[in-house]
């Protein structure tokens, strides 16, 4: 009887690793929530025109960017001038991890960013203080709540020839490429349109209005989140991949079936 009670007590105990797992899950959830909150609040609280923000940005610039762009952002043989590029260009390049460059190449590559959102805004504020340029877009254009159909039409006319109609990206010349646009923050999509990074042309408000830019963002987020009703997307990279699939897989199955039928008939 005593042995049975002892067994029941043991069977009701949690595994020693259960506590560790619960603590780890709690830390992950708390850390993720804090990171999201801190980034949102940093964007809301940083005063881009405050002297203290500009001074902090100047210090960050001198310690991390001046080697290539010059102490006064005037440019050097290793990097272009940043005078007049505006806050939007800095927020895009630094916020996507393209800057600072990991290595010299055909174009800057997306990688984990090295600065917090607050530091990125401080850098942007300093560069914006040097000369007028495109500013960080108003949040009302970044909600992905515009006209997706209209945005899709504008995207196909102006952007699809490089980024693909499904925004899957595409190859350009001399080792360059148009990146895929899935998983890109709305602010960075808008900033790319108004600053024209690397090979991309600039789409100012005279070319594409702010609301039309908001519609493009709505379209991109729609195709990013909607299910693939046609089945396997094959990377959404167009007819070459689809044709290759048909020839290699589809025709291969037909040939294999023909050989099997022939063997059976003999």
UniProtKB/TrEMBL annotation:
It comes from the Bacteria. It is a multi-pass membrane protein. It catalyses: a quinol + 2 Fe(III)-[cytochrome c](out) = a quinone + 2 Fe(II)-[cytochrome c](out) + 2 H(+)(out). Residues 52-131, 146-224 form the Cytochrome c domain. It holds the Pfam family Cytochrome_CBB3. The cytochrome bc1 complex is composed of a cytochrome b (QcrB), the Rieske iron-sulfur protein (QcrA) and a diheme cytochrome c (QcrC) subunit. InterPro entries: bc1_cytC-su (IPR009152), Cyt_c-like_dom (IPR009056), Cyt_c-like_dom_sf (IPR036909), Cytochrome_c_Oxidase_Subunit (IPR050597). This is Cytochrome bc1 complex cytochrome c subunit. The chain crosses the membrane at residues 244-263. Its EC number is 7.1.1.8. It is found in: Cell membrane. The keyword Electron transport applies. Keywords: Cell membrane, Electron transport, Heme, Iron, Membrane, Metal-binding, Repeat, Respiratory chain, Translocase, Transmembrane, Transmembrane helix, Transport.
